[in-house]
């Protein structure tokens, strides 16, 4: 498989075409962004750490019967993925209140959500990723109700696999964001699952081990990602 032209450059990843029409290459850069791209920094090794972390998690999900975009690692910072038609919404499940939920609803950070909540956000930096619901998604033709139901089912299925995985490593999976796409009419988990797109706290100390370290200027960002990886059995 040969890497070809750049197809799309996101805030932290670049997508390349390949000589195979149904395959793409995801290149994980060291760029780290927050606040809709307002804060951007280069963090040494982050591309490599996230690429390998994502591959490890996606393999766990595949083993649990959840179809993902990931095919194989291509290099330290690149992986080969199936080409998907991405649905332009983000699916967020929260086990514990944090981040925008705390700001929006005035609840206390750390409140356990029973049952966990589900939210859709429109992927649109210029509009600051507004929250949308099923009606917006069907009315604007971003997905069918059947696809919406399947995105919800799969996002919660990911919780069933990853909550215990992180728990075994002494961590709480606070929340996470997933994106899905279509391949031959089938809904498949795309994008990434890394500490850039989820919140993880140490179970005992509640120390933040995810991208909130970058957002809040707490330091040791990549070091924390490496520690998370180690605690779930991935040595980086
Ligand atoms: O900011 P908020 O609390 O809504 O984020 C919920 C979860 O989704 C967090 O884990 C955050 O890292 C992730 N997220 C993301 N990309 C976004 C928005 C949120 O990965 N554009």
UniProtKB/TrEMBL annotation:
UniProt lineage: Bacteria, Pseudomonadati, Pseudomonadota, Gammaproteobacteria, Alteromonadales
Domain SAICAR synthetase/ADE2 N-terminal: 7-231
Domain of life the protein comes from: Bacteria
GO cellular component: cytosol
Top-level EC class as recorded in UniProt: ligase
GO biological process, one term: 'de novo' IMP biosynthetic process
Keyword line: ATP-binding, Ligase, Nucleotide-binding, Purine biosynthesis
Pathway(s) per entry: Purine metabolism; IMP biosynthesis via de novo pathway; 5-amino-1-(5-phospho-D-ribosyl)imidazole-4-carboxamide from 5-amino-1-(5-phospho-D-ribosyl)imidazole-4-carboxylate: step 1/2
Reactions mediated catalytically: 5-amino-1-(5-phospho-D-ribosyl)imidazole-4-carboxylate + L-aspartate + ATP = (2S)-2-[5-amino-1-(5-phospho-beta-D-ribosyl)imidazole-4-carboxamido]succinate + ADP + phosphate + 2 H(+)
Family, similarity comment: Belongs to the SAICAR synthetase family.
Keyword Nucleotide-binding among record annotations: yes
Keyword presence, ATP-binding: yes
Protein name: Phosphoribosylaminoimidazole-succinocarboxamide synthase
GO molecular function, one term: phosphoribosylaminoimidazolesuccinocarboxamide synthase activity
Matches recorded under CDD domains: SAICAR_synt_PurC
The protein's Enzyme Commission number: 6.3.2.6
Family matches, as Pfam families: SAICAR_synt
């Amino acid at each position: 498989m040969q890497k070809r032209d750049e197809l799309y450059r996101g805030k932290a990843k670049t997508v390349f075409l390949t000589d195979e029409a149904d395959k793409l290459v995801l290149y994980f850069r060291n760029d780290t962004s927050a606040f809709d791209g307002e804060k951007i920094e280069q963090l040494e090794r982050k591309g490599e750490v996230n690429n390998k972390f994502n591959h490890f998690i996606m393999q766990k999900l595949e083993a649990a019967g959840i179809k993902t975009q990931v095919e194989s690692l291509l290099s330290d910072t690149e992986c080969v993925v199936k080409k998907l038609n991405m649905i332009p919404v983000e699916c967020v499940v929260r086990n514990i209140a944090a981040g925008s939920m705390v700001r929006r609803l005035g609840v206390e950070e750390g409140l356990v959500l029973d049952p966990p909540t589900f939210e859709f956000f429109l992927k649109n930096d210029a509009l600051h990723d507004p929250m949308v619901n099923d009606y917006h998604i069907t009315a604007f033709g971003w997905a069918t109700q059947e696809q919406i139901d399947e995105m919800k089912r799969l996002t919660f299925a990911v919780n069933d696999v990853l909550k215990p995985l992180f728990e075994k490593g002494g961590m709480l999976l606070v929340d996470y964001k997933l994106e899905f796409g279509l391949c031959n009419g089938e809904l498949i988990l795309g994008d990434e699952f890394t500490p850039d797109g989820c919140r993880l706290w140490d179970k005992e100390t509640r120390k933040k081990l995810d991208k909130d370290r970058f957002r809040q200027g707490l330091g040791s960002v990549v070091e924390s990602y490496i520690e998370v990886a180690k605690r779930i059995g991935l040595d980086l």
